UniProtKB/TrEMBL annotation:
Organism the protein comes from: Carassius auratus
Location in the cell: Cell membrane
InterPro entries referenced in this protein's UniProt entry, alphabetically: GPCR1_Superfamily_Member (IPR052921), GPCR_Rhodpsn (IPR000276), GPCR_Rhodpsn_7TM (IPR017452), Olfact_rcpt (IPR000725)
Main subcellular location of this protein, as a coarse class: membrane
Ranges annotated as spanning the membrane: 27-49, 61-81, 93-122, 143-164, 198-222, 243-262, 274-294
Keywords, alphabetical: Cell membrane, Disulfide bond, G-protein coupled receptor, Glycoprotein, Membrane, Olfaction, Receptor, Sensory transduction, Transducer, Transmembrane, Transmembrane helix
Protein name: Olfactory receptor 6N1-like
Cellular component terms (Gene Ontology): plasma membrane
Gene3D superfamilies: Rhodopsin 7-helix transmembrane proteins
Membrane-topology descriptor: Multi-pass membrane protein
Gene giving rise to this polypeptide: GFA28
Amino acid sequence: MQPPLENQSIVLVFTLSGLNETMGKRFMFFSLTALYYPFIVLCNVIIIYTVISHKKLHEPMYVFICNLCMNGLFGTAGFYPKFMYDLLSQYHLISYAGCLVQIFVIYSSVLCDFSTLTVMAYDRYVAICRPLEYHSVMTNQRIIECILFCWLSPFFCMCVVIVLTSRLILCGSSIEKLYCENWSVVKLSCFSTTVNNVIGYVIIIIYFGHAVLIFCSYIHLIGKCRKSKEGRNKFIQTCVPHLLALLNVSFALLFDVLYTRYGSMTMPQDLRNFMALEFLLVPPMLNPLIYGLNLTKLRKEVLRLLKKEV
C-alpha cells in the first residue's frame, strides 16, 4: 500500500545524525582527524611522486601501486573535508546533490580499489607464470587499458546506482551515518526499491567476485612458486602485500555492506561509526605503507627522497 501523498516531499537537504551522540568529543575527533588526514595525503603523495619521478619505477607493478594511491586520495577527499567541517558545526547537513556526489566519490573509490588489485593480480600472474612473455604481454597499451578499466568500470557502476537513486521519491531526510551512503538514502524511499536492491546486489557480487578471482589466481601462484627459492622470494615480496591490501579492503567493504543493511541500532554509536568508517580509515593509509615499506626498490627510492628533503 502506497503512503498518502501528503507524506511525500521533495528533499533538498539531508541531515547526518551519526555525530549526534558524540558531540561532546568532537574537538578530540577533530584534532585526531586533522592529524590523520594530512598523514594519509602525505604517505600517498610520497609514493605517487616517487613512482612518477624515477624512471626505474616505470614498470607495470609500480604504475598500478601509484594508481592505488591516487585512488586513495580521491576517495578520502570525498569524506574527510566534510567530516571535519561537521565536527565544528552545530548542524550536520548536506545538500541532495552533495549527498549524491559523496556517494559517487566514496563508493567508486572502493570499487576502483578492487579493480586495481585485480589488474595487479593479473600483472603478478604474468610476471611469475609467464616471465619470458611478460614484456610482450604487459605493453604500454595494455597498462593504459588496465588503468582505464580500474576507473571507468567503477564510474559506470556508480553512475547507474546514482541515476536509480535520484529517481526515488523520498519520505524522509535523516541519514543515520557520518556520510551519505546509498542504501541509507534508498531506505528513505516512499515506494518500492526492488530495482535499486537488485542492481546493488549485482554490483556487490561482481566486485566480490573480483576478490574471489584474485584469491584463486594466487592459489595457482603459490603452487607455481613452491618449486623454486627465487619464486618463493618473489611471491613473498610482491604478492603478500597485495593479498594484505585485498583482505583489508574486502573485509572493510563487507563490514560496511552488512552493517548498513543488517546492523543493529542498539549498538553504541561510537562502535557503529567505526564500523561504517573502517574502509575510509585503514586502506588509504595501509596501502602506501604496505607497498612503500615492503617493496625493496620502492622503499630505497622513498628513503632517498626523504633524506634529500631532510
